[in-house]
Amino acid sequence: MAGRTVRNRRIPSRTLCAAAVAACATLALAACGSTKDDVASGGGKGDGGGKVGVILPLLTSPFWQSYNDYVPKMATSQGVDALKTVNSNSDPSQQITDINNQLNQGVKGLVVAPLDSAAIAAGLDQAERKGVPVVAVDVAPEKGKVAMVVRADNVAYGEKACQYLGKQIGSGKVVQIMGDLASVNGRDRSEAFRACVRKNFPKLKVLEIPAKWESDTAASKLDTLLNANPDIKGIYMQAGGVYLAPTLQTLKSKGMLKKAGAAGHITIVSNDGIPQEFDAIRKGEIDATVSQPADAYAKYGMYYIKAAMQGKTFKPGPTDHDSEIVKLPGGILEDQLPAPLVTKENVDDPGLWGNTVK
C-alpha cells in the first residue's frame, strides 16, 4: 500500500561501498548500510530492552493481515518485546492517538506503518519529545524523525507494472487504479507509471482512478470507466490487497473477465504479492504482481527498532540482506527491500512469502 514523491536515487557501487564499509569498521564509525552488528556504531548505551509498540494502518487488506501475523514471530526472532499490535483502522487522526496511547504506556520504541506521510509528523514529534525511537514501515514520512524507513522501492513498482503492460499490450488504453495520493506510496507508484509510459510506450493511453486504497471506490469508478471505455486493454492495480476482488468482480459482471490467452483478455498487473493474487495468476485472471515483502517488513522493522533502542546508526549503502539503504530528502534513511515481479513463470517459487501463508 499501503506521502512527497521519492524519485530514483543514485546508488553507490557495491565495490566502492564495500571499501567504505571496511573503512568504517576500521575506524569504528557508523554502519555503512550493513545490518551486521560488527559495523554498526553505538549511538547510545541502551541494551535494546523495553516494550515496543507496533501500529498498523488497517486490517481490511490481506497484505496487512499477513504483516500482522508476521509481527509477533519476527519480534521473537529478533529478541524484541513487542506489545499486541494496534490497528488505526485507516484513520490518520486515530493513528496519532494510537501513538500517544503507546507512548503513555511507556514503550521504549515504536514501529509504525504511516497512513498519511504528512499527518504522521505530529506523532513522530511526540515520540521524539519523549526520547522514543520510531521505525516507519511501508511509508516514508515527509517530516519528523525516524531511525529507519523499512520499505520497498515504490518507484520501481510503477515502473515494473508499466514495463510489463507496455511489452504485453504495446498500444491502447490502460487503467491505473491508484492508491491514496496523500501517501508517498500512492504518489510514487502513480508518477513512476505515468513517466515510464510517456518515455517508453507513447502508444499507450493511461486512464486513472484515484481510489484512496478503498475497494468500494475502486469498484464503482472502474464500473463507470469501463462503461465509457469498453476497449480497455490493461489494468494496473496499485494494491491487490484492496483492489483485486472488486476489480475481478466488476470485470466478471460485465462479461469482461477473460483468461490469459483468450480473445478479449485484459492484461492485469498488481502490487502486494498476497496468496489471492498468486491464485489469480494461476487461474489466468491476472498476469503479474510485484511481491511487497510483508515478512521482511516485519523482520527488519523489528531489527531496526532494536538497533535504534541500542543507539546503533546506519549509513547509505548495500546491506547484508540484498537491499540498499538510501538517504531520502531531509536526511531520512530508508532500507529498500527487494520486491520481485511475479508471473506465471515463477508464481510457485517457494521463496515468495505469498506461498508460505494460508
Tell me the layout of helices and strands.
Elements: H1 14-27, E1 41-42, E2 51-56, H2 62-77, E3 81-82, E4 86-87, H3 92-104, E5 109-112, H4 121-129, E6 134-137, E7 148-152, H5 154-169, E8 172-178, H6 184-200, E9 204-210, H7 215-228, E10 232-237, H8 240-253, E11 267-272, H9 275-283, E12 288-291, H10 294-309, E13 312-313, E14 317-318, E15 324-327, E16 333-337, E17 341-342
Helix pairs in contact: 2-10, 3-4, 5-6, 7-8
Describe the protein.
The strands form 3 sheets. Strands 2, 3, 4, 5, 6, 7, 14, 15 and 16 form a 9-stranded mixed beta sheet that branches. This protein has a 6-stranded mixed beta sheet with strand order 9-8-10-11-12-17, with helices on both faces. Strands 1-13 form a two-stranded antiparallel sheet. Helices cover 39% and strands 20% of the residues. β15 (324-327) and β16 (333-337) form a beta hairpin. Mean pLDDT is 89; it is low at 2-32 and 35-45. It is α/β, with parallel strands linked by helices and 358 residues long. The longest helix is centred in the middle third of the chain and has 17 residues, at 184-200. The protein contains 10 helices and 17 strands.
Q: Give the helix tally.
A: 10
| Overall radius of gyration | 21 Å
The major sheet is characterized as: 9 strands, mixed
What's the order of the H and E elements?
HEEHEEHEHEEHEHEHEHEHEHEEEEE
Report the principal-axis shape: elongated
Model regions low in confidence, pLDDT < 50 over at least 5 residues: 2-32, 35-45
Structural class: alpha/beta
Mean pLDDT: 89
Percent range of helical residues: 25-40%
